[in-house]
Design brief:
The chain is of the alpha/beta class and 283 residues long. Helix 2 packs parallel to helix 12 and helix 10 crosses helix 11. It has a single domain, classed as Indigoidine synthase fold (3-Layer(aba) Sandwich), CATH 3.40.1790. It is built from twelve helices and ten strands. Strands 1, 2, 3, 4, 5, 6, 7, 8, 9 and 10 form a ten-stranded mixed sheet that branches. It binds pseudouridine-5'-monophosphate and manganese (II) ion.
């Protein structure tokens, strides 16, 4: 089962990032699957990190954030970079890994009608056959537009065990999820059926954060608005935007959004492990 590394280097501060990365790997093992955290270290693409490598990555500064466009260039220059959802999918697929757990995917940013800021994660889901388990799209994004783009690209968006689309820190939103499944076996079965039909691309599973760990939408919405306004005032766009918004929300919620982020990633790792095990038995 694949795990990304941008969440470690750009999504959470040290030392919570290292602690979380280790806990995710332990959770996957407890569930009976094998974790492979993916990153580029000194020009080499690693699918699975040793403890010392994970430790060094979590402490490192100025690590590149790698998406589809940057992956090969980082390798060619001997650089070190963390993989986003898009780049992690590419590496996982090369290694024969079909299931991947993360926190939230990138999507269509608010104001995208002016900025054109749409994450390459969405296009990767349309191309690369990996089932990605997330907690829904982050509410810092424009969720309706994100769903529209995924629909246009033919990406199945499957809410796990509920009708509404989970919204990362909040277990539900006022948007209906396009699809719903209630057990890991159905998700694994659909993955296999897509391949049998010759359909390119992956599946996006949106797994709601456990309700005891969630932050209600009404509570987080004004803070998102504030963080977004600050990013705009400071002219922060492109790759640094998502890391800035996440870090600012961690501050504005006095660490609560970080605790929720950790809880939802662990929850996603558990579900992804079950899907991976189910897929293994189907194959
Ligand atoms: N969700 C998180 N933390 C993160 C990310 C997502 O909770 O750090 C990262 C993922 O690696 C995702 C990337 O692929 O942000 C999206 O960045 P962008 O919006 O620049 O495409
Ligand atoms: Mn972007």
């Amino acid at each position: 089962m694949a795990l990304e590394s941008t969440i470690i280097t750009h999504g959470m501060p040290f030392p919570q990032n290292l602690d979380t990365a280790r806990r995710i790997e332990a959770t996957v093992r407890e569930a009976g699957a094998v974790p492979a955290t993916i990153a580029v270290l000194s020009g080499q693409l690693h699918v699975g990190l040793e403890n010392a490598q994970l430790d060094a990555l979590a402490r490192a500064r100025d690590v590149a954030k790698l998406s589809r466009a940057d992956l090969a260039a980082c390798i060619a220059k001997g650089g070190t970079g963390a993989t986003t959802v898009a780049a992690t999918m590419i590496a996982a697929h090369h290694a024969g890994i079909a299931v991947f757990a993360t926190g939230g995917i990138g999507g269509v940013h608010r104001g995208a009608e002016h900025s054109f800021d749409i994450s390459a994660d969405l296009y990767e889901l349309a191309k690369t056959p990996v089932t990605v388990v997330c907690a829904g799209a982050k509410a810092i994004l424009d969720l309706p537009k994100t769903l529209e783009v995924l629909e246009t690209l033919g990406v199945p968006v499957i809410a796990f065990g509920q009708d509404s689309l989970p919204a990362f820190w909040s277990a539900s939103s006022d948007l209906a999820a396009p699809l719903r499944m209630d057990d890991p076996d159905s998700i694994a079965h659909a993955h296999v059926a897509r391949a049998a039909l010759g359909l390119r691309g992956g599946q996006l599973v949106a797994n709601p954060v456990p309700t005891q760990d969630e932050i209600a939408q009404a509570a987080i919405a004004p803070l998102i608005a504030q963080a977004t306004a600050e990013a705009e005032a400071q002219g922060i766009t492109g790759k640094p935007l998502t890391p800035f918004l996440l870090a600012r929300l961690h501050e504005l919620t006095a660490g609560r959004s970080l605790a929720t982020n950790v809880a939802l990633v662990l929850n996603n790792a558990r579900l992804a492990a079950k899907i991976a095990i189910s897929l293994y038995s189907l194959r």
